[in-house]
């Protein structure tokens, strides 16, 4: 067993999150194994390729794209989502007002962001902040527009009570997953849409659906089926709205001159655009409402074990890893006499999300065409979409995790025992929650000098709501 050696330099704790410039001065050019663990790393080369691939696929569909920024919450990541060598987008969706404000304050090329969608059904307590936000957007770009999400008449009445302002909105539609929104074909949805059409404070920009249940997909066929359901749902809702407008020609002529935007997507269903040649192939018919298709997604630049399980991406498409340190080893302690070990990445560092592949994360080398970094071992993809690896983060406490032999790899029990002090790379189950744990991300670039061994940038995410 190797003798553990202390790092050559003592560590000075960062009591608060330092500004980016301070972090770059400290970490840029440093070996990845010199940083304090647990630490979150992103391969910028993979992040860029994932963004370009999405732009290319959506463009081939003839659709527009709306990038969700909640996974990483950084100016740098937003810029890559907005502009790539394969295309651009002018629209984003945020989960928090903080994200929207930081896009404006951080100057993430706002000059060509025409639309920010606040992606939660709006709470009345947030209206004053949202009005200020839109004013700030329009001081940078007079054509910029903030859009809201509506799925309840209560929210419409709150908008009416705010004042004479007209709010641009999406109607959130429930395709059957019961995540948010009102069911297609329901009396409640018809009543809501009628109220919105009649309201002087609301303009319906379009209809929005998110198939969160598509994350259970394990094949292209399953994910494509969820996309079809999403598309049918928003099309049906828009068709219903048109029927209501037909009876109100005075409203139709004054407020609704453009087709409704039909916004669909989750990362699994958006990934099907890479593999399905056109929306007609997915929908099997044209939109009866004449609506304009928009695709939205957010996890796709980073990806995780959940996305791997869908079978729509490969191991090389996962842009993040958590760097952790092995603390201790326990030979033959596990069930059936198998080895176990402990690392310093627990529930706070990885989240407590599990997935179809099991466990809280997989220990997987970071291998690219230009080199490799991290522990070596037997890895790859299995038919069920899980990662073939030697070790898995099988149990989690708050600040530490228990590494167990992988049950999906028959050869795992014969692989070498981990060594205290050794660094390991872990892919998390759910990147959005894993990234939320970290005050900053270390950026490496497998296409640049230094590859996966050297820190080349630091991204500081936005915190708060």
UniProtKB/TrEMBL annotation:
Q: Which GO biological-process labels does this protein carry? A: D-serine catabolic process; response to toxic substance
What keyword terms does UniProt attach to this protein?
A: Detoxification, Lyase, Metal-binding, Pyridoxal phosphate, Zinc
Keyword Metal-binding part of the UniProt annotation: yes
* D-serine dehydratase-like domain sequence ranges: 319-445
Pfam annotation, one family? Ala_racemase_N
Catalyzed reaction equations: D-serine = pyruvate + NH4(+)
The cofactor(s) it depends on are: Zn(2+); pyridoxal 5'-phosphate
| EC number of this enzyme | 4.3.1.18
Is Methyltransferase set as a keyword in this record?
A: no
Tell me, what is one Gene Ontology molecular-function annotation carried by this entry?
metal ion binding
So what does this one do?
A: Catalyzes the conversion of D-serine to pyruvate and ammonia. May play a role in D-serine detoxification.
- Could you say which protein family the record assigns here? Belongs to the DSD1 family.
Identify the PANTHER family for this entry: D-SERINE DEHYDRATASE (PTHR28004:SF2), ZGC:162816-RELATED (PTHR28004)
Q: What is this protein called?
A: D-serine dehydratase
Q: Which organism is it from?
A: Serendipita indica (strain DSM 11827) (Root endophyte fungus)
